[in-house]
Write a structure and sequence with these properties.
Blueprint (H helix, E strand, L loop, with lengths): L14 H15 L11 H8 L3 H13 L3 E3 L5 E3 L2 H22 L4 H16 L5
Antiparallel strand pairs: 1-2
């Protein structure tokens, strides 16, 4: 099993985002398992024919999302993304609920706003 990433220069999506999305999907699907060691930024950039900063930006975004973790000189690895994603979603939900209450929304209005946002994102309307 190897990380399989392709970057298409002819699409509107930035190369770093293409890398981020593909790694995230492969980690989420289990195609690349938890603990899998990712290539170095420089090595991966050379392999893809991109600037090292492009790959570094993708790695930073993935780390911020909890998909990967850097272990210093030992390298960068796929993290237990489900756990991190769940924690971050719970934190975001808590923050939203507190803000909605401070704004004076009742439970039904707050929930309706969330449902509208989820529908827009998951049904592709906000993409």
């Amino acid at each position: 099993m190897a990380l399989q990433i392709t970057v298409d220069p002819d699409v509107a999506t930035a190369p770093f985002e293409q890398i981020r999305a593909q790694i995230a999907e492969q980690a989420r699907s289990g195609q690349v398992p938890v603990g899998y060691k990712l290539p170095t930024v420089r090595g991966f950039a050379e392999e893809l024919g991109l600037a090292a900063n492009t790959v570094a930006k993708a790695y930073r975004a993935l780390e911020a999302d909890g998909v990967i973790e850097t272990r210093g000189r030992h390298g960068t690895f796929v993290a237990a993304a489900g756990d991190a994603a769940g924690r971050q979603a719970a934190e975001a939900a808590q923050t939203y609920a507190q803000r909605a209450r401070r704004l004076g929304l009742d439970r039904a209005a707050a929930l309706a706003a969330v449902e509208d946002a989820l529908r827009a994102v998951y049904d592709g309307e906000a993409l």
